[in-house]
Specification:
- This protein is of the alpha+beta class.
- The chain folds into two domains: 146 residues, Chloramphenicol Acetyltransferase (2-Layer Sandwich), CATH 3.30.559; 176 residues, 2-Layer Sandwich (Chloramphenicol Acetyltransferase).
- It contains eleven helices and eleven strands.
- Helix 2 packs across helix 5 and helix 8 packs across helix 9.
- It is globular.
- The two termini are 37 Å apart.
- 26% of the residues are buried.
């Protein structure tokens, strides 16, 4: 293999395969009280590729092999654009819902939405490249490059040192004893026990629903969490459970599993956690929903289940399952996933 090529890790491959069933776009939206320098940001976006070369790649699948191939055709205008907006929500929605193909499109890009006196910046990252924690690192890197350029217009960063993108760094850190202890007893993930009602819509493409939580409501939610010793994730998961059950007519007296993402970087030393890659695991808490129970009653069940999962090297078993699943080869696993996507 060409030494310039970067191997695609197992999680990269899985996110590429499952993109058929998900939007696979991650976004960070930042509001500014003034206008930012769009040309400086465009230059910072391009220079950021020097600091982490995988950002300037495209995903390649060839002969049952996958890797990241550096691109030579990306320009600053490909990575950053400016829109003068009179309707921020409409224009932002259009950008957020714009699809991105890791074989063709840039893996990360930004758009500045300019109002009369202030800007809103949205950074889009393809999930095949990075997870939520990795997306934050992309934004931190862009911000740092922008700040350095503002002080030193001729700034040219050094190329970053290569770091493994795979889960092998986690397995090495946790050790063989934990790998044996938390090895999966089965290689299958929990099956859905019910479905949400399907409403047929004419036309192609995906449908999106966005809900913006106002600052005062978000503050009240956080205060409620403190009073109940609940994390924000506990509250979101509780609301999600209740929405599924109230709208999906689930079977009664049956534990209903829901996948919850978790950042596997918690296994790594502090100096190695800033990785632009996919290192996310999945937990599958399952609770029995009782019709008529209060939000607080559901919350207590969620807290108990999450406490159980967090006490058991969270995410490690799922990471092992993922590696085992890919042993059948990328091509075979991709074909199976495509078949599942077509049938439901």
């Amino acid at each position: 293999m060409n030494p310039k090529l970067i191997p695609a890790a197992t999680q990269d491959q899985m996110n590429y395969i499952t993109r058929i069933n998900a939007d696979q776009q991650l976004h960070i939206i930042i509001s500014f009280k003034a206008h930012i320098q769009e040309q400086l940001l465009s230059s910072a976006m391009l220079l950021t590729i020097l600091r982490d070369p995988v950002l300037g790649c495209r995903f390649i699948e060839k002969n049952n092999r996958t890797y990241w191939q550096p691109r030579q055709d990306l320009t600053a205008s490909d990575l950053c654009s400016l829109v003068f907006t009179a309707d921020l929500q409409k224009d932002l929605f259009e950008f957020v819902t714009m699809p991105s193909d890791p074989l063709i499109d840039p893996l990360f890009r930004a758009r500045i939405f300019r109002g009369a006196a202030n800007d809103t910046l949205c950074v889009k990252v393809n999930h095949v490249l990075a997870d939520g924690a990795g997306t934050k690192e992309v934004v931190y890197l862009i911000s740092d490059t922008y700040s350095k350029l503002a002080v030193e217009p001729g700034y040219t960063p050094e190329k970053s040192k290569f770091y493994p993108r795979s889960q092998a760094v986690i397995f090495k850190k946790v050790g063989l004893a934990n790998l044996i202890k938390f090895r999966p007893r089965t290689f299958t993930l929990p099956k859905p026990l019910f479905e949400l009602p399907f409403v047929h819509e004419t036309g192609a493409g995906s449908a999106f629903a966005l809900r913006q939580i106002k600052p005062e409501i978000f503050k009240a939610i956080k205060e409620y969490g403190k009073l109940n010793q609940a994390t924000l994730n506990d509250l979101i998961l509780t609301a999600y459970y209740r929405s599924l059950c109230l709208n999906g007519n689930p079977p009664l007296n049956t534990p209903l599993p829901v996948q919850v993402s978790i950042d596997l970087r918690h296994f790594l030393p502090a100096g190695h956690t800033q990785r632009i890659c996919n290192l996310s695991g999945g937990l599958f808490p399952a609770i029995t929903f009782t019709p008529g129970e209060t939000f607080q009653e559901t919350l207590k069940k969620v807290q108990e289940k999450m406490a159980h999962w967090k006490s058991r090297q969270p995410g490690l078993t799922g990471a092992i399952i993922m590696e085992l699943a890919m042993l059948q080869g990328f091509k075979n696993h991709s074909a199976h996933a495509a078949g599942r996507g077509k049938t439901g």
